[in-house]
């Protein structure tokens, strides 16, 4: 019994480092022979997602889920995001000649732009997303605010710019979404546009592009878009300046 235990312990001591070091043993070099760590590998994966070189990924690669979870909970993620909203302000102050006639507008995404879905995704990275579970989580209205976005939202409002929220969330989540937004401090938007059955057939990029076109036809001057997905800013943007927040957790086409 004692001996078996010691043997198991010894075996474990050998096995654990092997599992942890698994990645390094198999892939310690890039195709060009550069020696890299798992952190190097995952950081370059994350960077290339943000550069939009890696597209249409279904899940975060298994070997990088720990790294990505750490990143989205880190100060670096907050600093990266805050830099984005600061650049929005620089742009507003230097390049936007606001008319202040009630037609100046700014568009925001909701998830991982105004509200954080990290509490949901941190346990689901690397898995194919279960939409039912995600919508169940959203319907509870417990998503926290991203505080830099909240500050920017309030700054936009104080400058008399109309705020339009365009989200890939579906209509049945409307009241939960409004409650969630208001509870964490967002209020005073002009429009909240969600997906309904008539526009669920087109891609998110096409849907958002159609909404922008509609808003322009109503006389809005859209100065900018703040989102976390490229699909929020794809298609015919008509020269609208778009700012992208970091989001290495999921990809919406
Ligand atoms: C998806 O989530 C729902 C709700 O939590 C659950 O009932 C269902 O079993 C899940 N489906 C899969 C395939 O995991």
Oligomer: single chain
Main sheet?
5 strands, parallel
Q: Spans of 5+ residues with little confidence (pLDDT < 50)?
A: 9-22
Instruction: Look up the CATH topology of the largest domain.
Output: Rossmann fold
Task: Summarize the amount of helix as a percent range.
Answer: 40-55%
Specify the number of helices: 10
Radius of gyration using CA atoms only: 22 Å
> What's the total number of strands?
5
Shape: globular
Structural class: alpha/beta
Number of domains: 2
Helix and strand sequence:
HHHHHEHHHEHEHEE
Which ligands appear in the coordinates? 2-acetamido-2-deoxy-beta-D-glucopyranose
Distance between the termini: 57 Å
Instruction: Using the 3D structure, state the CATH architecture of the largest domain.
Output: 3-Layer(aba) Sandwich
Family: Belongs to the APS1/VSP family.
Pfam family, one: Acid_phosphat_B
Keywords: Glycoprotein, Signal, Storage protein
Signal peptide: 1-21
């Amino acid at each position: 019994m004692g001996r078996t235990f010691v043997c198991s312990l010894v075996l474990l001591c050998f096995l654990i480092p092997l599992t942890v070091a698994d990645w390094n043993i198999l892939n310690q070099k890039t195709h060009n022979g550069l020696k890299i760590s798992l952190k190097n590998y995952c950081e370059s994966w994350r960077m290339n997602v943000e550069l939009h070189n890696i597209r249409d990924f279904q899940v975060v690669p298994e070997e990088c889920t720990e790294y990505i979870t750490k990143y989205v909970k880190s100060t670096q993620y907050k600093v990266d995001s805050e830099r984005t909203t600061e650049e929005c302000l620089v742009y507003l102050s230097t390049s936007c000649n606001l008319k202040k006639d009630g037609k100046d507008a700014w568009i925001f995404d909701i998830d991982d732009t105004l509200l954080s879905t990290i509490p949901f995704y941190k346990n689901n990275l690397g898995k194919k997303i279960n939409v039912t579970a995600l919508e169940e989580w959203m319907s509870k209205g417990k998503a926290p605010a991203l505080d830099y976005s909240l500050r920017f939202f309030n700054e936009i409002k104080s400058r008399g710019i109309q705020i339009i929220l365009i989200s890939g969330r579906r209509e049945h989540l409307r009241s939960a979404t409004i409650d969630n937004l208001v509870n964490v401090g967002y209020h005073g938007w002009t429009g909240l546009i969600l997906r309904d059955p008539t526009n669920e057939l087109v891609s998110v990029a096409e849907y958002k592009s159609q909404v922008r076109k509609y808003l322009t036809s109503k006389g809005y001057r859209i100065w900018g878009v703040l989102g976390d997905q490229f699909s929020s800013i794809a298609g015919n943007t008509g020269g609208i300046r778009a700012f992208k927040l970091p989001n290495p957790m999921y990809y919406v086409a």
